[in-house]
Specification:
Structural class: mainly beta
CATH class of the domain at 319-565: Alpha Beta
CATH superfamily of the domain at 319-565: Glycosidases
Number of helices: 7
Strand content: 35-45%
């Protein structure tokens, strides 16, 4: 039986055409529960064809012409730059055969898609279930009544990856690429006839001696329950039970019942340095017996934008972050959990940001999970870029608000919902709807709407503003957050002249200095973290937007050093030159050296001769806690030699950085993010390639070709040979489905070879 659900919005009903609204738990959370619920990953054993209408309506077909693939999957492998988006803009077909486990008899069966780009028409056993329009939000179809328990079933997804004008963000220009394919995970969800549809846990009074948490439990049932129902809720910290309570189910218009766990003691707050997490376990009881169970991870924190800036747990924190695109070289968006989580690690631990904006769409749950775990705040926004389409387009956008919030409302890292299409013009009725939808679903968080002009109508709670000028406009609202700056106004490559690299760094520093000058600036989010692929009318000559403080492979430019330097020295002592050391790379002699550091004094030496001692440049950067240093090295070009910079704190030498004056490549190194993989066919580790001087500084004009030889059950994501860019680059090692050792050998023509040894552990088998 086809199900048809409706989503209430302001004055409008949106038909969802048998597509469920998202209330899907992460598979890791739901899988352990045996009480009536099974989450069955179906990411392996897919068959793929880059053609449309490949026997979608048929149950029996020949797979011989199809490629065997594992999800996440990109519909076509691409170069890392200089390609046309038409390469991936086509309709393709995915098939997955499966048998329904006997334990699913008498239960309801759903297929849950976490992300498919861009429109998905789903069939099971030849029956068309419907089409979902949208590439960044989750969706589900119910398979109950269409599956055969005695035979093999066939799931078919026809994926339209073209830039369709009826689906956000498309319809006009757009400064990013969306790629194609089933690029996030897929699961079968087996639940009882009456089941837990979603959970929203809302901590309250967290700064008092007696915090509590309201756990709203959403129920879905195809028919009236035969016995009285109740929800039993348990709050845990690891394996320790903190509190529990049971409440009878109250059937209401919202289909939800709230269970309150009150007067909690010993609760540890979630904050940037101590991201303490708890788990809410919910059991649905019928006649006292558990018939379904699910869980969510939460954190206790109070987060709000005030007239004096952003406050976390009662303490005002200046926000310092970067915007992130979720795209990667070679595979677009189709990277698994490990790579998504690594991006969060880079932002929080390598760059010391405290905030990220998911520009310009909801991003992988794995990325958000990592943000929860490491204390990285998140501004999450709906899909879009400048353009607003007609009414059906707007209806999808309002639905995107709902799906984004209902998927992610338990993440303690998320502090602001972005309910406006990035940099769009005003549309009172439309944005009244998106804002009302957000507030109706989640009254615990504020909303923002990313705009580019201060005269914009202010409907949301926080005035979020892209301001690429300098000096910045003064805040025109009490709750004000700058959400983009620098970016396209000063694109910078790792191979650019030293003046540009330095100026790029200083532009980010100047903006943050001004943001620090006024408490009504809650902070700022620089454009952007990582270089990214784009259309021909926005990027450089190779269709890359070189707007990042790192390159597309996540390797740092000098501007990354500024963000890194803004942490407390107790976390890391930082000394990052905003230049490469070469005698003739400046236009007229290299005498002015900019260094980003959290030290309080620097000394510069050449040939062990002290040239200059400097303190932070507080004359230009009056408001930064850790201003950049500007050193005038004077006319010392004879003799030329190695540069040594010493960093001192309180008169004590804390860090030394030496840069070779030889201009000779001395080392070829491989830097893996890790050496352990899971043999699930998708798990991937990044391997960074670097050519450096003898002191491990990257040589930015090394463009050598690196060749690879791989032994064992894995593949290379990337070029082979790989031409270095700015002395660096990266490939990814992707596991196959067989456990065992893997050896990667990388050859440099003059610096020899390097080897890495990976371990691929056996993974949990998937259903047939």
């Amino acid at each position: 039986m086809q199900r048809r659900e409706f989503l209430k919005t302001t004055g409008t009903l949106i038909a969802a055409a048998s597509v469920s609204t998202p209330g899907i738990a992460a598979p890791e959370a739901a899988a352990p529960h045996a009480a009536g619920r099974q989450i069955l990953p179906i990411n392996r054993s897919w068959k793929y064809s880059p053609k449309a209408n490949e026997a979608a309506h048929a149950r029996d077909f020949n797979d011989a012409a199809f490629e065997s693939i594992v999800v996440p999957h990109t519909n076509i492998a691409l170069p890392w730059h200089s390609f046309d988006e038409k390469k991936y803009s086509f309709i393709s077909t995915y098939r997955r055969r499966f048998k329904v486990p006997a334990t699913a008899r008498g239960k309801r069966i759903f297929v849950d898609f976490e992300g498919v780009m861009t429109a998905s028409t789903v069939f099971v056993n030849g029956t068309r279930l419907g089409e979902y329009k949208g590439g960044f939000t989750p969706f589900s179809f119910e398979l109950t009544g269409h599956v055969d328990f005695d035979k093999e079933n066939v799931l078919v997804v026809e994926v339209d990856s073209t830039e369709r004008a009826d689906i956000p963000p498309f319809g006009f220009q757009i400064d990013y690429l969306t790629f194609g394919g089933i690029y996030r995970e897929v699961n079968l969800r087996v639940v009882p006839d009456t089941f837990i549809e979603n959970i929203f846990a809302r901590p309250k009074d967290v700064l008092t001696a007696s915090p509590s948490v309201d756990v709203e439990c959403f129920l879905e049932s195809a028919k009236a329950p035969a016995a009285p129902l109740s929800f039993h809720v348990t709050l845990k910290r690891g394996t320790t039970t903190v509190a529990q309570a049971t409440e009878p189910v109250v059937l209401s218009e919202t289909k939800s019942t709230t269970v309150t766990l009150a007067n909690l003691s010993g609760i540890e707050l979630w904050d940037l340095n101590h991201p303490n997490l708890y788990t809410v376990h919910v059991e649905l009881l019928s006649g006292g017996h558990a018939i379904d169970a699910d869980q969510r991870t939460i954190g206790f924190r109070e987060a709000m934008f005030t007239d004096q800036g952003f406050s976390l747990n009662g303490k005002v924190i200046k926000l310092r972050g970067l915007d992130r695109h979720q795209t990667f070289p070679f595979v677009g968006q189709a990277m698994p959990a490990r790579a998504q989580r690594q991006d969060a690690h880079i932002l929080r631990h390598n760059l010391h940001c405290n905030l990220v904006r998911t520009s310009h769409y909801p991003q992988s749950r794995h990325f958000l999970d990592a943000c929860d775990e490491i204390g990285l705040l998140v501004l999450e926004e709906i899909p879009g870029w400048q353009h607003i389409g007609p009414q059906p387009w707007k209806d999808i956008s309002v639905d995107n608000v709902s799906r984004m919030i209902r998927r992610d409302w338990n993440h303690p890292s998320i502090i602001l919902w972005g309910t406006r299409i990035n940099e769009s013009l005003d549309d009172h009725d439309f944005y009244t709807r998106t804002n009302a939808m957000a507030h109706s679903l989640d009254k615990t968080r504020q909303t923002g709407g990313i705009r580019y002009f201060q005269e914009s109508e202010f409907i949301e709670d926080v005035f979020t503003m892209n301001d690429f000028g300098f000096p910045l406009k003064a805040p025109n609202h009490p709750r004000y957050l700058n959400t983009e700056f620098v970016g396209h106004t000063y694109p910078t490559k790792t191979i650019d002249q030293v003046e540009r690299l330095t100026e790029h760094t200083l532009r980010h520093a100047r903006i943050h200095d001004q943001l620090a000058s006024n408490p009504q600036y809650a902070g700022g989010i620089g454009w952007c973290a990582f270089d990214y692929n784009t259309h021909s009318d926005f990027g450089s000559g190779d269709r890359i937007c070189y707007h990042g403080v790192t390159d597309i492979f996540r390797e740092p430019k000098p501007a990354a050093g500024f963000y890194k330097s803004q942490c407390d020295p107790q976390e890391e002592v930082v000394l990052e030159p905003a230049f490469h050391w070469a005698r003739g790379d400046a236009s007229v002699n290299f005498t002015k050296a900019v260094v980003c550091s959290n030290c309080d004094h620097l000394k510069f030496y050449v040939h062990d001769k002290l040239l200059v001692e400097v303190d932070p440049n507080r004359a230009e950067f009056k408001h930064l806690k850790y201003p950049p240093f500007l050193a005038d090295l004077g006319d010392w070009f004879t003799p030329w030699g190695d540069l040594r910079i010493e960093g001192y704190i309180g008169g004590k030498l804390m860090i030394t950085r030496t840069m070779s004056g030889n201009g000779v490549a001395r080392k070829f190194t491989l830097r893996p993010d890790g050496l352990s993989l899971v043999a699930d066919g998708a798990d991937s580790e990044r391997v960074v390639l670097r050519v450096t001087d003898e002191f491990d500084n990257i040589l930015p004009f090394s463009n050598d070709a690196i060749t690879f030889h791989l032994e064992g059950p894995a593949t290379i994501i990337g070029d082979n040979p790989f031409g270095l860019v700015g002395g660096t680059g990266a490939i990814w090692i992707r596991a196959k489905e067989i456990a065992g050792p893997v050896r990667l050998t990388a050859h440099h023509a003059t610096l020899g070879k390097q080897e890495l040894h990976f371990t691929l552990a056996a993974s949990t088998p998937e259903m047939a």
